Amino acid sequence: MSTLVKNIIRFALFILIQVFVLHQVPVLHKFITPYLYFLYVIWLPFGMGRSLLMLVSFVFGLTLDYFLKTPGLHAAACVLVAYVRPFLINLLIRQEGDEQNYASPSIVSMGWAPYFMMVFILTLLHHGYLVFLEWMQFGTFLYFLGKVLATTGVSMLLILITELLFFRKEKFRTNTV
Amino acid sequence: MCFNFKLLSVRNIFLFIRKFSNFLFFLVLQIISLYFLFTYNKFHEAAFMDVAGEFTGRISQKFNNVQYYFQLKSTNDSLLKQNAHLLNLLRQDYEAADTAAKFFTDTLRVDSLLTIQRFKYYDAKIAGNFTSTQNNYFTIHRGTNQGLPKSKDWGVISPNGIAGRVVSVGDNFSVVMSVLHKQFKVNSMLKKGGETGPVSWEGEGSQYLTLVNIPKSAKVAKGDSVVTSNVSDIYPPGIMVGTIAEIIDDKSSNFFILKLKPATNFSSLQFVYVLEDLQRDERQKLEDPIKKGK
């Protein structure tokens, strides 16, 4: 399957799972909203230009927003994740040139620790920004802090489960053909 | 010389844009999304929202077709309860045993009632419902094609109590702002004493609504009913809002803060009624100049 088709299918799947599974879960606590959808942005290939990456993330976030009637909220957070992702990859990648050797960020291409470090920072950024936009309208600082931390914890758990269930085997591609 | 300088500065701008193109693009996208967000929070209108609403409504409805089966029992129960309540109001069910009881004839014929009818009910099926966000909306499957007037701000009630207000009307679907939305406010009163105050949601889980401005002289008890007041602008008086779950004695003021358990269970909501206010135009015509004058 080509990368484009794969990503288009993922696009739809992530949106549907977020809207019709995770957002249907009854509220466990006021701090917890289960989020998984932004994993799509993390899984996008290395080879995409940074502008394209941000554009795709914007459209992705806005699609979710139209479902949840919060136009712009998730789009803004997704664009932030897409903007920061290349910086983190440059910092955390094991070996220079691995961006060319592998297709997209994963446990195989980056290693357990760096990959989850990147995911953790992006998750924290995403939720921080999302809850901040919400918090500007109401809530106390304790609410902001508690919600960011609790939601990040739940998201990390969901991402870990997803990574283990749908383990992506990345092929090592040499460019010396 | 001057021309040269100008050319140079223009070139510098281009160089700057090229160097920081990613960052500038990031800023542009951020500004677009924040603009969307803040205009929507204020006016409940956003670019492409109508088109997107039809599309997302259709998908939500497909999902709801499945979900609906699992809630048939509770839906049926609440509709049955509402029917029983309405049957209890029928006039032929009242019969006085004592003939000395005072008789009075209703001077209004049934047909003539229509001219003074204030609220017209439209039934609607829920198409999509999300109760885990801070700003909760739900989509109903009724729009202008099914007779709902285009103007927004109609009240929406469920069989058990108030549910929200319409914020945008599409061709086949409409979006309703749920009671669990921090911009939602409804004027309510205690059913027993009649003290009025605004009810709102403070965003803390879907368990509690907050009623303020009830003076401490009022008699309140846990479990008391709170209903919409006589001056509510979108609901008829006497619709259930919730029951008192917690009474907070605010030491710094002369008023109680009451936590209410909402009458409507939003996670299993399947049918609602949209209330069209037939007398609103006349009322607004009177009120608007006064409001603007202030």
Lay out the secondary structure.
The complex is a heterodimer of chains A (177) and B (294).
Chain A: H1 3-20, H2 39-43, H3 50-68, H4 73-92, H5 98-101, H6 107-110, H7 112-135, H8 141-165
Helix pairs in contact in A: 1-3, 3-4, 4-7, 7-8
Chain B: H1 2-19, H2 21-43, H3 49-70, H4 72-87, H5 113-116, E1 119-129, E2 135-140, E3 155-157, E4 162-169, E5 174-181, E6 185-190, E7 196-200, E8 209-215, E9 225-228, E10 240-249, E11 255-262, E12 271-277, H6 280-293
Antiparallel strand pairs in B: 1-2, 1-12, 2-5, 3-4, 3-12, 4-5, 6-7, 6-9, 7-8, 8-11, 9-10, 10-11
3D structure, described in words:
The complex is a heterodimer of chains A (177) and B (294). In chain A, helix 7 packs antiparallel against helix 8. Chain A has one domain: Arp2/3 complex 21 kDa subunit ARPC3 (Orthogonal Bundle), CATH 1.10.1760. By secondary structure, chain A is mainly alpha-helical. Chain B has a 6-stranded antiparallel beta barrel with strand order 1-2-5-4-3-12. Chain B has a 6-stranded antiparallel beta barrel with strand order 6-7-8-11-10-9. Helices cover 33% and strands 28% of the residues of chain B. The model of chain B has no long low-confidence stretch (mean pLDDT 83). Chain B has 6 helices and 12 strands. In chain B, strand 7 and strand 8 form a beta hairpin. Chain B is globular. With 294 residues, chain B is of the alpha+beta class. Among the domains of chain B are: 42 residues; 79 residues, Thrombin, subunit H.
